[in-house]
Specification:
147 residues, alpha+beta, HIT family, subunit A, 24% helix, globular, binds zinc ion
Length: 147
């Protein structure tokens, strides 16, 4: 894990899991400017919080709710950090509304690692497939419980 303390003298927002000084992000690398970092996405499981395979966030060090208040070229830093980790990503973007699934108020740009033979699926197809899998899982659970 890369050091979480910054030299930017930024006050973290209490309880925000993406403000690095709160120590809840697994930082892989920082940008040259020090204003952004790339971190593994952590997901809650029975075994606690574990890294999701191939899933990363690029996060500004400062707490911004959306990109309208950023005063630097965040996407340029996203490109720099993608280069640093040396992975190919096939889906990436912002979740800017809570309806879009965003659960954390600190702006973050997500990246999903592409594997060599992955189908080039768009976000719409991925969401659709996710809904189908959830429906299948609920149906299988109901059958198992005899409902
Ligand atoms: Zn924050």
């Amino acid at each position: 894990m890369v050091a979480t303390r910054t030299s930017l003298k930024i006050q973290p927002v209490d309880g925000c899991p993406f403000c690095p000084d709160n120590g809840m992000v697994d930082i892989t690398a920082r940008s040259k400017s020090g204003r952004t970092f790339i971190a593994k996405v952590l997901v809650r499981t029975d075994r606690g919080m574990v890294p999701a395979r191939g899933a990363y966030f690029v996060i500004p060090v400062e707490h911004h709710i959306d990109y309208s208040t950023l005063d630097f070229d965040f996407l340029k830093e996203v490109a720099e950090l993608k280069e640093v980790v040396g992975l190919s990503f096939d889906n990436e973007g912002f979740n800017l509304t809570t309806k879009g699934g965003r659960q954390i108020e600190h702006l973050h740009y997500w990246l999903m690692k592409a594997h060599p033979h992955d189908q080039p699926l768009g976000l719409h197809t991925l969401r659709q497939r996710h809904r189908e899998l959830l429906t299948e899982r609920r149906a299988a659970e109901s059958r198992r419980r005899g409902w």
